C-alpha cells in the first residue's frame, strides 16, 4: 500500500478538505502515476454533493488526470517509468460482455468501474479519484498522451474532450453540416473546438451573452443567446445535429424545434433534477430524436487524444490551487468558468 494525499468530501454539505488514504500496491498489470494536473468536471460537483443520490463517502473526485509514470508492474508493456500518461473516467470494466468486447467499456453490461465513486469488482473499496497526488491503474485503462507541452490544458480532454468527441463521431458530424452546441462550459467549449475541427459549421447556444466573443474565438461560426426568442426563431428546422451540455434542467423544446427532419439532439448534460418533459408533437411531426451519450470507451478516448494532438486542440483553462476547489465549485454553479478549472497538483502538498 502506498500513502496518498488527496482532497475529499466526507458528506454532501461539508467543503472538500485534505484527506489521507492508501493506494493498492502496483500489481503486475498496473501503472502508478504521480498526478501533475486534474481537471474539474461538473460531475465532480454533482458527486461531492450527492446530487445524483449515489455518492459513496469519503469521495475523492477527479477524472481528468494527467501525470508521470513512476512505477510499472512486471507484465506492463505499453508504459515505462517517466512517460506522461492520462486517466479518464473509468479504470476497469468486466472485459467479457458484448459492450466491453466492442471497446464500449462505458456501457459495460456488468457496470464499469468509475475512476471515483466506483465500487471495485469483487466488492473492493470505493475508487478514489484524481484530486490526489498519485493513482494506480491497470495499463488497459491508461491513455497515451502525445501532446508535448501545455499538459495542464490536456487534462480536460480526458472527460470533457471524450464526452463531446464520442457523440460527434457517433452521429457522424462533418463538413457541410450545421451543428449546435448548447452551453459554453467545460464540455461545451470542447464540443465547439472538436466539431469545428471535424469540419462542421458550429452554432453555439448560451445563456451568457458575455461569452459571445469567446465562442467565436473558439470556433463557433455564430452565437445565439438562447433566451432571445427572435434569435432562436431564425434557426427553426435547420440543424443536422445538436449536442446539449447543459448541467441544469431546462426547456428542451426550444432546441428540438431547431432540428431538421430526422435530426437528433443528444444530451450529455446530467442535471440533478429532470428536464421538463419535451413536447411529443415537436418530435413526431419531423421524426426528430432526443438521445443520450455517456463519456467514451478507452480506444475512442485514445483516438480523441490523438485527434486533438494532431489538430492542436487543448482546453482553455484556469489553473487553480487545490485549496481553491470549493470556491471553484461555487463559480461553476454561476457558469463562471473559462472554460475549465484545472488543479495544479503541486499545490496539494502546501494544502
Ligand atoms: P459546466 O462547465 O458547469 O458547464 C455547463 C454550462 O451549462 C454552463 O457553462 C452554462 O453555459 C450552461 N448552463 C448552466 N446552467 C444553466 C441553466 N440553468 N440553463 C441553461 N444553461 C445553463 O459543466 P460541464 O463540466 O461542462 O458539465 C456539463 C454537464 O455534463 C454536467 O451535468 C456534467 O455532470 C455532465 N457530464 C456528463 C457526462 C456524460 O458522460 N454524459 C460527462 C461529463 C459531464 P452558458 O453560460 O453558455 O449558458
Ligand atoms: Zn467528467
Ligand atoms: Zn463489460
From TrEMBL:
It holds the Pfam family ADH_N. Gene3D superfamilies: Medium-chain alcohol dehydrogenases, catalytic domain, NAD(P)-binding Rossmann-like Domain. Keywords: Metal-binding, Oxidoreductase, Zinc. GO terms for molecular function: alcohol dehydrogenase (NADP+) activity; zinc ion binding. Its cofactor is Zn(2+). CDD domains: CAD1 (cd05283). Residues 11-343 form the Enoyl reductase (ER) domain. SMART domains: PKS_ER. The keyword Metal-binding applies. PANTHER family: ALDEHYDE REDUCTASE (PTHR42683). Belongs to the zinc-containing alcohol dehydrogenase family. This is NAD(P)-dependent alcohol dehydrogenase. The lineage of its organism: Bacteria, Pseudomonadati, Pseudomonadota, Gammaproteobacteria, Pseudomonadales.
Amino acid at each position: 500500500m502506498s500513502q496518498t494525499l488527496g482532497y475529499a468530501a466526507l458528506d454532501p454539505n461539508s467543503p472538500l478538505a485534505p484527506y489521507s488514504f492508501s493506494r493498492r500496491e502496483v500489481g503486475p498489470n498496473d501503472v502508478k502515476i504521480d498526478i501533475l494536473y486534474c481537471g474539474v468536471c461538473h460531475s465532480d460537483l454533482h458527486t461531492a454533493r450527492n446530487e445524483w443520490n449515489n455518492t459513496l463517502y469519503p469521495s475523492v473526485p477527479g477524472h481528468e488526470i494527467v501525470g508521470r509514470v513512476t512505477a510499472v508492474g512486471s507484465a506492463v508493456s505499453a508504459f515505462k517509468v517517466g512517460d506522461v500518461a492520462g486517466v479518464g473516467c473509468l479504470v476497469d470494466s468486466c472485459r467479457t460482455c458484448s459492450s466491453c468486447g466492442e471497446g464500449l467499456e462505458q456501457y459495460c453490461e456488468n457496470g464499469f468501474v468509475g475512476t471515483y465513486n466506483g465500487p471495485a469488482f469483487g466488492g473492493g473499496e470505493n475508487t478514489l479519484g484524481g484530486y490526489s497526488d498519485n493513482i494506480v491503474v491497470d495499463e488497459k485503462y491508461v491513455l497515451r498522451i502525445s501532446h508535448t507541452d501545455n499538459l495542464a490544458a490536456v487534462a480536460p480532454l480526458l472527460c470533457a474532450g471524450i464526452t463531446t468527441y464520442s457523440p460527434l463521431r457517433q452521429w457522424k458530424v462533418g463538413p457541410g453540416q450545421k451543428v449546435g452546441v448548447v452551453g459554453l462550459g467545460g464540455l461545451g467549449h470542447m464540443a465547439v473546438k472538436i466539431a469545428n475541427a471535424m469540419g462542421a459549421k458550429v452554432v453555439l447556444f448560451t445563456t451568457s451573452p458575455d461569452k459571445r466573443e469567446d465562442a467565436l474565438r473558439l470556433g463557433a461560426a455564430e452565437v445565439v443567446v438562447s433566451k432571445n426568442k427572435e434569435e432562436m426563431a431564425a434557426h427553426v428546422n435547420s440543424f443536422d445535429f445538436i449536442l446539449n451540455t447543459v448541467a441544469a434542467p431546462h426547456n428542451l423544446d426550444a432546441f428540438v424545434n431547431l432540428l431538421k427532419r430526422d435530426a437528433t439532439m443528444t444530451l450529455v448534460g446530467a442535471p440533478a433534477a429532470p428536464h421538463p418533459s419535451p413536447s411529443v408533437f415537436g418530435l413526431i411531426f419531423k421524426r426528430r430524436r432526443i438521445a443520450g451519450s455517456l463519456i467514451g470507451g478507452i480506444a475512442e478516448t485514445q483516438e480523441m487524444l490523438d485527434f486533438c494532438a494532431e489538430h492542436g486542440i487543448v482546453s482553455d483553462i484556469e489553473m487553480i490551487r487545490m485549496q481553491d476547489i470549493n470556491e471553484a465549485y461555487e463559480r461553476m454553479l454561476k457558469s463562471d468558468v473559462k472554460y475549465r478549472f484545472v488543479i495544479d497538483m503541486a499545490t496539494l502538498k502546501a494544502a
